[in-house]
Amino acid sequence: MSAENAEELLVHRKADLVITQMPVISRSVICMPLHTIRNTLICSNKHPRITDNSTYEQIMAEEFTQLISKSAGVDDIQMEIDEKFMNRKISFRGSSLLTIINSIAVTDLLGIVPYELYNSHRDFLNLKEIKLEHPLPSIKLYISYNKSSLNNLVFSRFIDRLNESF
C-alpha cells in the first residue's frame, strides 16, 4: 500500500491504524517504524545440489521463484535482489508467499521469503535456509495512526503494547 493510500484511509475513511512499507508523512498522522522483516534464501531439505557449502555460482545455476507484487516497497526490494542475483532463472512466479513456500517445499526451486515465514514453516515443510555471504535486503514496516486516536485510552494502550512488542 502506498503512503498516499494509507493517508487517505486514515484521514478520510477513518481507519484506526494502517501498516505500510513506506512512511506516511502528514500533520494529522503519527508514523513510526514498527518492525524490520529480514529476507532469506531457502530451498527444500531434500534439494539434491544445494548444501551448506554451496557457492554463489552453484546457487545461480538453480531455478528460482519470484513474488508478483505491485507494492512499491516490494518492488524496491526486488530490484535490490535482481542486482544481487543478476540473470537468475525464474521458473515460478506467484502472488502468494504461501504458494511460493509450498512450491519450494515440493520442488528443487530456490526462493527468497521473509525469515519469519520460513521459520514458522521450515519443520512442517522440510525447508532449509541457504547461507549467503552478504545478507539480503530487509523490508521495513511502518505503523501509522491519527494523532487524535491517542485520545482513546484503549487505543493508546494498544499502541503502547505494540511499541513494547517490537
From TrEMBL:
One of its GO terms (molecular function) is DNA binding. It comes from Shigella flexneri K-227. InterPro entries: LysR-type_TF, LysR_subst-bd. Belongs to the LysR transcriptional regulatory family. Keywords: DNA-binding, Transcription, Transcription regulation. GO terms for biological process: regulation of DNA-templated transcription. The keyword Ion transport does not apply. PANTHER family: HTH-TYPE TRANSCRIPTIONAL REGULATOR LEUO-RELATED (PTHR30118), LYSR FAMILY TRANSCRIPTIONAL REGULATOR (PTHR30118:SF14). Residues 4-165 form the LysR substrate-binding domain. The keyword Transcription regulation applies. It comes from the Bacteria. Pfam families: LysR_substrate (PF03466). This is Transcriptional regulator, LysR family domain protein.
